[in-house]
Amino acid sequence: MKTISRQASSLLLLIGLLFGFFVMISYQVNRAKTANTVESAIQTVVSPAHRLISGLWIRVSSGWSDYVALTSQAAAADALQQRVTYLERRIMTLEETSRENSRLKELLNLQDRIKPHSIASQIIGRDMAHGYETFTVNRGSRDGVEIGSGVISTTGIVVGRVIQVSPWTAMVQLITNPRNAFGAKIVRTLAHGVVHGAGG
């Protein structure tokens, strides 16, 4: 009788252990399913936001790269434009220098040509009342001097014109006289204009 009771107890214990084992397995399976369900739900909610953020980041990165590229291109274009402007000014300066050399050669040739036809003279008086705006030379009409004749220095620079003639003298008005005006050109800008005497 005791042997049967021990066997029954062992059987009940075994059944209890098996039941507990199956309960634990079922709990773990349900827990895993629940975890998978929660994880799936989280992924479902988070995935669109993740895709949106990723897309925005790609666009921002691409836009920044384009901005940097455009900024670099703009700086390069600005530097190139400055270089072109410098070269254009340099060319203008060289061209003007070449023209100036040509004018100097013509002036030298002019001096050689006018020497046989020029009339050498000396200054014998100045108009003190008008701030040295006129002076008198010791050559006149009997020497071939005429009103309106140009007067140049020994270096070929125009200094004035004859405004009055007598048989033995001539009065010369300086080019700096306020009543005088002559054409001129600014070498740096190549602008043409009229220069008036300022006196003195």
TrEMBL record:
<dbReference type="Pfam" id="PF04085">
    <property type="entry name" value="MreC"/>
</dbReference>
<dbReference type="InterPro" id="IPR055342">
    <property type="entry name" value="MreC_beta-barrel_core"/>
</dbReference>
<dbReference type="GO" id="GO:0005886">
    <property type="term" value="C:plasma membrane"/>
</dbReference>
<dbReference type="InterPro" id="IPR007221">
    <property type="entry name" value="MreC"/>
</dbReference>
<feature type="domain" description="Rod shape-determining protein MreC beta-barrel core">
    <location>
        <begin position="123"/>
        <end position="197"/>
    </location>
</feature>
<dbReference type="GO" id="GO:0008360">
    <property type="term" value="P:regulation of cell shape"/>
</dbReference>
<protein>
    <recommendedName>
        <fullName>Rod shape-determining protein MreC beta-barrel core domain-containing protein</fullName>
    </recommendedName>
</protein>
<dbReference type="InterPro" id="IPR042177">
    <property type="entry name" value="Cell/Rod_1"/>
</dbReference>
